[in-house]
Batch of 2 targets.
Target 1
Amino acid sequence: MDPNHEILFEPVRIGPKTLRNRFYQVPHCSGFGTEKPWTQAAHRGVKAEGGWAAVCTEYAPFSPGSDEAPLVAARFWDEDDMRALRLMTERAHEHGALAGIELHHSGAHAANDQTRWPGLGPSQIASDLAPHVVPKAMEPADIRRVQEEWVAAAQRARDCGFDIVYVYGAHSYLPMQFLSGFYNKRTDGYGGSLENRARFWLETLEQVREVVGDDCAVVTRIAVDALGPAGIHVGEALAFVRLADDLVDLWDVNVGSIAYWSKDSGTSRYFPEGYQFEWTGRVREATAKPIVGVARMTDPDLMASTVRSGILDLIGGARPSIADPFLPQKIAEGRTDEIRECTGSNVCIMKVDGHGHLGCIQNATAGEEHRRGWHPERFDRAANADRAVLVVGAGPAGMECAVTLGKRGFDAVHLVEASSEIGGRMRWVRRLPTLGDWGRIVDWRRIQLDKLANVAVVTGSRLTAGTVREYGARIVVLATGSHWSGDGLQASTHEPIDGADPTAPHVMTPEQVALDGKRPPGRRVLVYDAEGYYVGSGIAELLADEGFETHLVTTFEVVSPISDLTLEGPMLRQHLHERGVIAHRGVTLERVGSQVVSGVDEFEEPFLLEADGIVLVTQQVSDDALYHELMADPTALDVAGIEAVFRIGDCVAPRMISEAIFDGHRLAREIDGPHPAYPMPYDRERGIPHAG
Ligand code: ADP
């Protein structure tokens, strides 16, 4: 271990418990909750195994009055939920970690769509997160009831084996709603002065501490600056920390609110590593108790200096722990170059909130630990490891496949790439404005490829069907990717756009702009985004930065709607606005001319814009010609001794980077299975059977 990092491995006492080191997996959503208890246990367990000293659940609503459905939370109502989460505490303990539970009440934000209880808030004001929810203003009996529920849940948590119990107030949930004048307009003893507004939180802490304080560490999570209206600002936060300090064993600090979650789970596009310290770094002024905080930290030098400077005692990680569950162990063993660094793309959040099951762009095994039995660091030798494998194309899918095949002990794997560098689409994606950290996808794989003696990387070699057959491989994996359609083929019409021809000087594809340097013949450019994620907006920003008058025309009602699922949307739109990009929403283009493009708006009214050039970001098309050519001649494959040809990534169907990586990983894991071309079934959890 680098001596500079030794400080990260000192034990830290929090109340009655001791953390074995300073790595703390803060609560984060997973989509597992108590619905998929084995998945939950396996996901947190692998982090415990990887060296995290504490692993926590996601938010754990303890009352039907705080119902998160259809989102999945670690619901913690009763015996059944205890049995579900006991799997997790046992797994954490097996690996020497403490287990934490983030007991939670949404208060005014709770829609309670399934339980059909009314929402509860300090005052009757519509939720800023879900404005259709108008809560009941809590009466003293409601306050007592919620506090009793909190205490009962804390007792259940202790009995379930949890070492750390939260009174969760961050993200503008109930305790913060009482503390913040934005929510709290009360005139009784729970409103008005800071002391009054703090009363609900302080009483709850006191009562929880009273019943479990000797057995469990009592932690509170607080957003020390809402960075917007929905909470408090740092001055008030420090005053609250002073008021509550005696009741707390560990301060878990962050920024933002649930409506401004984008400022807490800040993406790499708009927030550098360590960005939260501007606010959370001030908490030390008010407490000598241990502090844990987050800021997408993956750099051990930054971690060590953060501890040394006293800003934090514990390195909190949610996304970095998903991208690399073995981050602590790699630092401990001096293998820092092997850390699979979080890209800050928030694909994990899209996966949880949008798709209902955690996944990660960098770590294909995240969320698959139980259901597919994948371990991030353990690979068994493939039954057919003696076969020579040729992987064609070193984009995300090909790189991941070659790395995983290498780890599965194949005697010889060749990864052959046509261009002079590996990375595939990442070669240009990482060069779009603000997307540099996504380059970590290539960087980690490059380091792995360098270290694997059984994997050779060949660049600058475009293979044909003939050269593939002559290569000498027994198994061929095609990862030849995709390209953006130059003729404007698009979802809304299912046809190309009239007049769109990427060989003309005024028509461009994203690759032509970002990789080949093609530019419009005049100053006024139109970027047409019918896809809705980062490419259209990224190209628009690139061109605007170069001084083009840039119009972003999109079929969607908002610019880049998919970026809202990753919490990038608001910043992205602000960013484009500041750079003078002019947005036109709800438009479908039908014709491209050399000076004018035309189409219809959402009401089928004509849309016309003069432009010197257009960039078409409509859809991608698979580069699968090589595959079809090889498969068309099975005899030639036989003669060449090729026993199997597989396809992965975009050359099967163009998808998100995370899915291309998953595809490459999946094939390598199952390449000695009964039907490698198709994914094996996985364990579909159906929860813990009801006790009664
Ligand atoms: P994916 O996301 O599926 O990995 P990409 O488009 O990012 O796909 O990457 C595909 C890579 O395959 C590109 O780098 C491309 O240069 C390479 N490639 C495509 N065809 C060939 C070929 N015939 N020989 C070698 N490399 C190829």
Target 2
Amino acid sequence: MDIKSIRSLQEELSTLIGVSGHEDDVSNFILKLIEKENLADKAWIDPLGNVLVIKKGTDGKNKILLDAHTDEIGFMVSHIEKNGFLRFVPVGGWDQRILLGQSVVIRSQVGEKFHGIIGSKPPHLTSINERKKLVEIPNMYIDIGMNSIEEVTNNNIVIGTTGTLFSPFMEFPNNMVRGKAFDDRTGCNVLIQILRLLKENSAFKDTVLFNFAVQEEIGRRGAITGAFKLEPTIALAIENTTAADVPGIKEAEIPVYIGRGPAITIADKSMISSKRVNERIVKNAELDKIPYQFKKPMYGLTDAGYIHISREGVPSSVVSVPCRYIHSPTSLLKLDDILNTVQIINAFLRNKANI
Ligand code: CO
């Protein structure tokens, strides 16, 4: 496991389209990779679409769940105009201010990709007052270059077809990369790297369970069914979190920073993290000299919010890779932060500190 393999998997995972409820391309990619590399004792897709994975430990008393979500925010076609333009509704939490003029990519019902542009009434046809107002989604449309409702439906784009903002993967200086859907393909990347490390060094006491979970962005639904099925005794959600280390933000309001290592959640809007789980993360990180930071309370919510109240309760926490511009077309993160997140989870699992 090195920066190069993390970078190439990040590109592959982020380029896939998997809007909430339509994660098949991502789930199938992950399941195939696990089968091809023979990474698990058992791996399957559950009725909701989660990829569930079991890697058996030698004593198997403790069952540690690692969860990362496969879905990304996007949009769903809600109406097709007679002249071939598409109306849409958002899936997940978009910032409406950034949608207009964006390029989009749509995944047709048979998996074909089509490009489009989000438009609205052109500025030279609007009054000065209209131009001051925020254009809302019902007044936007997607132009995919087609001329009629028949042409659209013949190409298997129908009401309910989903898509997302188009954003190519690129490298920036200082080991930084930009791309779409880093929330939470980054977590999926971390989980796959952990599976590879477990395969390399298989003498491992605890059973490790994995949920590559669907439908996080619209209510963290896959986390609920996955945790119920797998029955963990401890759990960690691996996420991407808002690095607001940018101009104009007061230091007291910056939840996490790029480049300072994985961010450990103390409390967010969905959970107060288990103190013992956090102690196990921190003590093992210190033993192995892995950098980490604490995420300031109480921003965001994650799959762990439901996992920790599964069945009779599961001591849980969240470890996140800091990322700028989450829920915009393009996210920016530092590959070293992913590497250190893999290392902190690996140290947590091996538990040299014996907590
Ligand atoms: Co997320």
